[in-house]
Amino acid sequence: MKNLRSRTSAIALSFAFLCTSAPVFAEEQDSSVTQDPEAEEMTVPPATTDLIVVEGTRIRGQLFVEEKPIAEFNEEDIAAFGASSIADVIAAIEPATGSGARGSRGGGRPVFLINGIRVSSWREFRSYPPEAIRKVEVFPEETAQRFGYSADQRVVNILLKPNFRSVTAEVEVEGPDRGGFTRNEQELTFLRIGDKGRLNFNLDIEDSSLLTEAERDLIVESGQPGEAQFRSLRADTMSAEGTVNYARAFIDSGLSMSLNGTFNHSESRSLSGLSNDGLVPLERRGDVDTASVGATFSKPVGDWNAVFTNNSVYTDSRTEIDSFNGSGFDIANSQTWRLDNAITLTGYPIALPAGDVSVTVDYGLDWVRISSDDTRSSLETELTRRRFNGRTNLSVPISEVGGHWGAIGGLSLNFSSGFEDLSDFGTLANWSAGANWRPTDTLGFSATRIWREVAPGLSSLGDPRIDEFNVPIFDYSTGDTVLATLITGGNSDLLAETQADWKFSGNWELPFWENARFQVDYGINRSRDVTASPGFSAAFEEAFPDRVIRSGAGELLALDRRPLTLFETRSRVLSFGLNTRGQIGKAPEREERGSEGRRGPPQGGGERSRGAGGRFDPAQMQAVRETFCSTPEGEMPDLTKIPEMFRARLLDADGNPDPEKIAAARQRFCGEEAEQRGERFAAMREAICADPPKLDGLPEEMLARLKDENGEIDPEKLKAMRERMCSASGGENQQGGQRGGGGFGRMFGGGDEQDTRPRYFLSFNHNIVLENEVLLAQDGPLFDQLAGNVLSGGAISENTSRLEAGLFWQGYGMRLSGRYTGEATLLGGDLPGSSDLFFGDLATFDVRLFADLGEVLDKEEGWFKGLRLSLVADNVFDARRSVVDENGETPAAFEPFRIDPVGRYLGIDIRKAF
Q1: Which locations, inside or outside the cell, does it occupy (predicted)?
Q2: CA Rg value for the chain
């Protein structure tokens, strides 16, 4: 902020108030009423001293931790996603949120925070519209420890706008371009975020029709004639879900709470061919009801902050399976009750020269019960697990960049230890240790060691057995595709797993690319007694021959894919990620000044520049004043109440709210001096707007600006000033052009032209699997899954990639999603007739084109306001993975339309925000 010069005259103050406080909308500023150049550059009103100190503000709920964010997205970036909900936003940033170094640990959602606070479950916020988001921050896995989680999930902090209200309705109709089935979805969402809380209702209904093998011209030679029309590639499904979310903050006590409830009903029907006599179609019908409730309470307790979360879920599942002999059907029932409770205490009890020691203590008490029965068995299964767990995490700052021991950069250490006491597995332990080092503000490194014992999930132990008949399976021993029975369910003999992992990371904010970060992760995973869901391969049959059922002649009859325990697994993964966002082209420059230091009219000014200034709306000015003055110090005002083009002037170069600009605007609008300026301005407006104008009531300096070179009042200048100050509307200018460019805009940091440059975002991640091995016993055998000896699923590719990118410009948007899977091999064994399989690489691209019709057509009212039309094209190039045997032929089980029966997928999405 610049030092202020000596106090200006009363007219300069009054006119500065006009140019900085009144919502004057003008396409161009007439040179006759332009401020003095020195006054234009002022950012705060004059004071008794030459130096003004403004305290900056931050967005409430932002995280300030040693770890640098992997990616950040502001509301303009999020608008470019074309998303319909927070769930869509998370999908759009998936390359940044997925932990590339998990290796064999698999995927899963990251840890979610709302305004920096833990939530009870994903359903608490997933249906919120993206317009409610102020900012999204993505942090590395180490940050999760501060919130009571282990260091193997990234953290997504979603910052919501403080005041927001919307009702959105959305309809989607989609299906493959070659037909076969259709999918439709209808969703209705209400969200209100106020000063003290938020309320959300969401209703979602989805329906998808059946797709059979006959509709893709698929047959299996060993099947019965005409059976293809009775085998499904995709089930007929329907689901309906209703959600209620409520959150409330109690300012006086510091307590905040959230409650949520969801009920989901889903149905499915799939076909499994014909009965063994060829007369009865075999169906499998599923019916699932799920009721969920959750709560979160957050409150300061002394010097600590306490967060309590509860998540309670009841699931009732019924599956009807037609008997293979066509005589009726069997029933598999399952009921699951789950209660998860956790309390997390966070504090900073010790002050060190480099910062405060952060301590997080987390305790949980969970209870799960699974009850299942099957008409094919007289036994009923009932498993219950009580889990009591605790964890303590310490984050110790050793040095800080530019501060204590700054010569070594910023260094912090993390330590955590915990336990789990399970009613069915006893006490299990876990610990982790890590270091974060930032040699500069833009470069950071981390190393983390994680060791823990993990019990198998209760579903893996107790799910009911389900037999799926007539499943096409490739038999590696013969090279043929046969129809066999697939057995799934639980296994009560599973053991507790021991995990020992290393993770090394680097995070670099690129100096040559604005708002771009490059992330590198290297993970080493070692596990004992691993729970795995097996696939089928020659290696699997060699390792577990009792899981493969054959006839006396060697024909494959059934495959048991219930979970089993692997002695040891080893994996190493190297991951690269790039996340960036910004605008294309140079920022618009300020208008050049005339010879007298004033802004000159644009080229071809004519009538459009002369007398075409904007209009003054006192009610709008008062609303803007209330926005700034009603917000407590230290909190961010609701910028959504500021006109859009002027709101942009409160942002910094990264598109984030600029604390200094906001503080300066607050100082102009609020306080005793602002009231005095308002009174002076009101007197000026009354004088200039009188009929005829009372020019004697104007200060001499203002009169001087209304005079021509002969010292007489210029009628055109007077007319222009009256139009700016006296109109009661805040609409468009007389020429119908866009609003902007007037003195009101300079309150927010200058009179620049509106920035209409295209916005872009890009998030890319590439994983390289360096090692993936399974050891069946202490002394072997060892199966190298990268080389094709796969036990636990399909072929494993060395290289995989994920891309999300988008472009948004003046209401039009495009989002591109890409996935790449590299080549892989499955070995077929050494038996006569066996064959290896070779999987080709696969790259697919999804495109979403959308238009915000209100912005495109410049309609701020009526039906087009908030209306968005989207066109969806998934797998645009209709790509499918090729699978061939040693003879170059494709087995029936791996035909392209069997692997991917959908292919190119088209849809239309209409969304209206009210």
Answers
A1: Cell outer membrane
A2: 33
* Distance separating alpha carbons of residues 685 and 541, to the nearest angstrom: 90
**Closest alpha carbon to 523 in 206, 182, 769, 278:** 769
Do both 414 and 555 map to the same domain? yes
- The closest alpha carbon to 109, from 154, 47, 57, belongs to 154
Please tell me the predicted confidence (pLDDT) of residue 911: 95
Angstrom distance (rounded) from CA 295 to CA 720: 58
Tokens of 80: 């470019």
Domain extent for 398: 339-562
Residues in the chain with pLDDT < 70? Answer: 1-60, 99-108, 588-623, 633-634, 640-648, 652-656, 671-680, 696-697, 700-701, 709-711, 724, 727-755, 793
How far apart, in whole angstroms, are the C-alpha atoms of residue 469 and residue 230?
12
What residue has token string 């209904």? 205
**Rounded to an integer, what is the distance from CA 359 to the centroid of its chain?**
28
- Report residue 711: phi and psi, to 5°: 85, 10
- At which residue do the structure tokens 């060892």 appear? 782
Cβ partners under 8 Å of residue 362, min gap 6:
148, 342, 343, 344, 345, 390, 391, 392, 393, 418
User: Collapsing DSSP states into helix, strand and coil, what is residue 694?
Assistant: coil
Global confidence as pTM: 0.73
Q: 346 phi and psi, to 5 degrees?
A: -125, 130
Q: Give pLDDT tens digits for 494-525.
A: 999 999 999 999 999 999 998 899 999 999 99
Percent above pLDDT 90 for the chain: 39
Domain count within the chain: 4
Same domain, 786 and 906: yes
- The model's pLDDT over 198-238, given as tens digits with 9 standing for 90+, comes to 999 999 999 999 999 999 988 877 777 888 899 899 999 99
**Residue 328 CB burial class (10 angstroms; 0-12, 13-18, ≥19):** exposed
DSSP 9: -
Interior angle at CA 430, CA 426 and CA 436, nearest 5: 170
Report if residue 756 sits inside a domain.
no
